[in-house]
Amino acid sequence: MKKVNLKEKLSKFSDHWNPRIVGELNGQQVKLAKLKGEFVWHKHDEEDELFYVLKGRLRMMYRDREETIEEGEFIIVPRGVEHKPVAEKEVSVMLFEPASTLNTGNTQNERTREDLDRI
Amino acid sequence: MKKVNLKEKLSKFSDHWNPRIVGELNGQQVKLAKLKGEFVWHKHDEEDELFYVLKGRLRMMYRDREETIEEGEFIIVPRGVEHKPVAEKEVSVMLFEPASTLNTGNTQNERTREDLDRI
């Protein structure tokens, strides 16, 4: 029940593509992540995923189009939809998604992060 | 799958204590609300509720203490915990909670809002 200050939490890490858990509710988790460069194509078979841009600009690629999400905007990627986040410069995002969500979705590779830290 | 700009959505309404739905995922809803003045004491028996302050300062009262949530901060009120939001000046918040959540929780009164608008 302690409040969470996002800037303070973001100051605690600097690596990219390694989400941290900052809140849990109703089986969902709130995560913070810093993104830079291109991620891998993946989808989540069972989970819808919300990306809220706190700082910077996120390019979300789909197989048939792309969208650019600016500060103060969010996007919901529905389950089953292949996507690839791209950050030309560093982006800070807040994620809302089920606790079961794996960052690389249906793929497992060197970008996969499990047992995420709670900060 | 269209992105949501929070400032643009907030510009679409001005009344207080009347949340609007701006996103849905995994049985949860993302809502925006403007708050001013005192709300009613209530609790949600089955739902945890996240308040993220977009603009202004929110005072969250519990029966035994209170907390002030500033811009860029969020708080999660766990299910079963009585709370009363108070906004001395207008506050804009983003809420994240199950689709089943009623704004007045276990109470029903003139502040209750049902069939919320999607904007």
From TrEMBL, chains A, B:
UniProt xrefs under PANTHER family: 16.7 KDA PROTEIN IN WHIE LOCUS
Name of the protein in question: Cupin domain-containing protein
Biased composition (Basic and acidic residues): 110-119
Domain of life: Bacteria
InterPro entries: Cupin_2, PKS_Associated_Protein, RmlC-like_jellyroll, RmlC_Cupin_sf
Sections of the chain in a coiled coil: none
Region described as Disordered: spans on this chain: 100-119
Compositionally biased spans, kind Polar residues: 100-109
Species assigned in the record: Salegentibacter chungangensis
Pfam family name, one: Cupin_2
Cupin type-2 domain segment(s): 37-94
Gene3D superfamilies in the record: Jelly Rolls
